[in-house]
């Protein structure tokens, strides 16, 4: 059974934001009860991002799910990271292992950080089209929904 559909925070297209703007976009517009819940989700996401940043690789990050809607109490934050394959391939062994933990242990990451993480490759039309469809429409698979995007270089 699907969760109740809430209106998206962004009606259509992409909105580029920075990590510093996450609170303003996803927490500040809500009342104090929802703010507490959403702030806790953002803390988990921030911890995940801190782990990711130690990899020192380029990424484009799309944020979606009920966290990107007016839902007061989303269960997690859905994200897809796009990587350059050559950067992932050239990671030293320790960082490769960390990459695998972060991006291939989805259930563990969801339990640890409240983040449902997916990934694709930069330049892959298949990956971009798939996630643009999944993240860019509401549950009815027709109504457009905007996607928040961050970039790490």
Automatic annotation (TrEMBL):
It comes from the Bacteria. InterPro entries: DUF6932. This is Nucleotidyltransferase domain-containing protein. It comes from Pedobacter albus.
């Amino acid at each position: 059974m699907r969760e109740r559909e809430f209106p998206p925070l962004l009606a259509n297209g992409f909105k580029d934001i920075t990590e510093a703007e996450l609170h303003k976009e996803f927490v500040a517009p809500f009342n104090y009860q929802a703010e507490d819940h959403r702030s806790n989700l953002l803390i988990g996401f921030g911890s995940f991002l801190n782990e990711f940043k130690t990899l020192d690789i380029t990424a484009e990050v799309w944020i979606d799910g009920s966290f990107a809607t007016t839902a007061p109490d989303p269960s997690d934050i859905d994200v897809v990271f796009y990587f350059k394959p050559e950067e992932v391939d050239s990671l030293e062994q320790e960082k490769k292992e960390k990459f695998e933990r972060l991006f291939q242990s989805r259930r563990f990451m969801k339990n640890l950080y409240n983040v449902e993480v997916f990934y694709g490759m930069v330049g892959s039309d298949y990956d971009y089209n798939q996630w643009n469809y999944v993240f860019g429409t509401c549950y009815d698979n027709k109504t457009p929904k905007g996607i928040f995007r961050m970039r790490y270089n």
